[in-house]
Design a protein that fits this description.
The protein has 514 residues and is an alpha+beta fold. The protein contains eleven helices and 15 strands. The strands form three sheets. Strands 8, 9, 10, 11, 12, 13, 14 and 15 form an eight-stranded mixed sheet that branches. It has a five-stranded antiparallel sheet with strand order 3-2-6-5-4. Strand 4 and strand 5 form a beta hairpin. The longest helix has 64 residues.
């Protein structure tokens, strides 16, 4: 069996875990019970079908035997003397009728209850029809008299030569019946009539329902037993999983001293070994990361851990899009604010701004007082870096409008920021020395983006981009073309554009790439 061992209070974690894990255990129990029910249902269906067929054959054989015995013991000579309806008053008719009644009453037993017994004959004028000759019923609405048509089944299919029981129940004006028909023969062996015996179909169906009920009761008893077995089996099945999940939960909570013990020789022992090895690796990785972040940035630390080797002081030239953002006149705005209010305002501001940067695949490079620098296209390539940078800038300006209303409590009614964006080639990589390094970008591209951000206040615009960024996104956004600007540090003037918003898609057209 498996068990999680920790230096923390694992019992509390185990109880908490079990409260959630019972759902899976319930699923296992339900699955096992469902499997047992399905199996029992199939067995019940097959057994019931076979038992039903057997019971039907037994009842058919019984009623056929009654009819056959009654026909064989009857005085055929007296029967043949009944020729017209007027003979119903004759002693001969009454004798035959009394004989049939004795046979009927003698076979009204618990196992089989004979309802009607009668004799029919083939119509001499219409061989496809039959009529009653003698009916054992007493006088009343159920009494059939000589000459009345026999309509219980298709008389064209009546067989006057062979004793038989129709496979299907027979319906007539009196109800639904299981009927046996046996030929009555004279001394020469000629069939001179059919003796019919009827059992009420409801009696047959009742016995079949009792048979089904017995099967259902047996299935329910089996299901009850299956529930008990399923509960025990699911508990045994989920115990090792519970231990494994406890260990993983402890690791997720940061406890890297967790170990899984096992006392079995199956796949769970292999899983426990894998978890223990994983925890050791995570502990080593976390220790290394905590050490690295004291000397390098988190990005570089992640790169070192991902590559499995120490980062080198190397860099590369690549195309990136750089974004600088800064709060306008923040120094004057914060003069009348306490240090605590300044920190609270900046935290709320940075939280909203950086969220926009990250949403559009940007990388936060550094904070610069009340501003910051971000870049798109590094360290991971981004073919839509220009578009993502502008969309992040638009979302940042939207966030500033929302913050402006909230910051009125700090007496900062005109809270605005300026954003400068430039695209070009820069040197990107780990910059610094062996004791301390930082992943950043340097070059004219970065400087130009910083200068554009500074120009936003002078030109009274929110977001300013260079012509190098504009050329890649000119069809996706609305811009206002500015004058050629002489940017500090650059010999040539550059064309700048202020961002006014995204281009509205035409009806039925898709939106811009995000």
């Amino acid at each position: 069996m498996l068990a999680a061992v920790s230096t923390d209070d694992s019992d509390c974690v185990r109880r908490s875990h079990q409260r959630h894990f019972v759902k899976y255990r319930t699923k296992v129990s339900i699955g096992l019970v469902a499997l047992a029910l399905m199996t029992n249902s199939v067995v019940l269906a097959l057994t019931y079908y076979q038992a039903r067929e057997s019971l039907m054959r037994q009842i058919q054989s019984t009623v056929l035997s009654i009819a056959d015995t009654t026909a064989a013991l009857m005085d055929v000579d007296r029967y043949l003397q009944i020729k017209v309806r007027a003979d119903e008053t004759s002693p001969v008719y009454q004798e035959v009728e009394a004989y049939l009644r004795r046979a009927r009453d003698a076979n009204r037993r618990q196992d089989v209850r004979l309802k009607y017994i009668y004799i029919i004959a083939q119509d001499t004028k219409n061989p496809r029809a039959a009529h009653f000759v003698v009916d054992a019923e007493e006088e009343g609405e159920n009494k059939s008299h000589f000459g009345e048509a026999y309509k219980s089944i298709d008389t064209s299919n009546l067989d006057f030569q062979v004793a038989h029981v129709p496979r299907e129940f027979v319906k007539d004006q009196w109800g639904t019946w299981l009927t046996a028909l046996v030929p009555i023969r004279d001394r020469t062996g000629k069939a001179v009539g059919l003796l019919g015996a009827d059992i009420n179909a409801e009696d047959v169906e009742r016995r079949l329902r009792l048979l089904l009920l017995d099967g259902v009761v047996a299935m329910l008893c089996s299901a009850g037993l299956a529930v008990g077995v399923a509960v025990v089996a699911s508990r045994r099945l989920t115990e090792p999983l519970t231990a494994v999940c406890d260990a993983v939960r402890l690791v997720g909570q940061g406890n890297l001293n967790t170990q899984v013990e096992w006392r079995s020789n199956d796949e769970f022992s292999q899983l426990a070994t894998a978890i223990n090895e994983m925890v050791v690796g995570l502990r080593q990785r976390e220790n290394l990361k905590h050490t690295l972040v004291r000397y390098v940035s988190r990005e570089v630390a992640d790169e070192i851990l991902a590559s499995g080797k120490m980062a080198e002081l190397k860099s590369e030239r690549r195309k990136i899009t750089v974004l600088f953002a800064d709060v306008r006149g923040f120094t004057s705005l914060s003069e009348n604010m306490s240090p605590e209010e300044v920190v609270s305002l900046l935290n709320e501001y940075f939280d909203k701004m950086i969220d926009a940067i990250f949403r559009y695949k940007g990388t936060l490079n550094k904070f610069l007082g009340d501003g910051f620098m971000a870049m798109f296209g590094a360290p991971a390539d981004d073919p839509y870096q220009e578009e993502h940078a502008i969309r992040a800038a638009l979302e940042m300006q939207k966030g500033v409008k929302e913050l402006r209303e909230k910051f009125q409590r700090y007496h900062v009614p005109d809270f605005r920021i300026g954003i400068g964006i430039n695209t070009g080639v820069a040197v990107v990589g780990n910059i610094g020395c062996n004791q301390r390094m930082e992943y950043t970008a340097i070059g004219d591209t970065v400087n130009t983006a910083s200068r554009l951000e500074a120009k936003t206040k002078e030109l009274n615009v929110d977001t300013l981009i260079s012509e190098f960024t504009h050329v890649a996104v000119r069809s996706l956004f609305r811009f206002k073309k500015g004058d050629l600007l002489q940017v500090k540090g650059k010999a040539d003037s550059i064309q700048v554009f202020s961002v006014e918003g995204p281009v509205e898609p035409a009806p039925g057209a898709g939106g811009p790439i995000s």
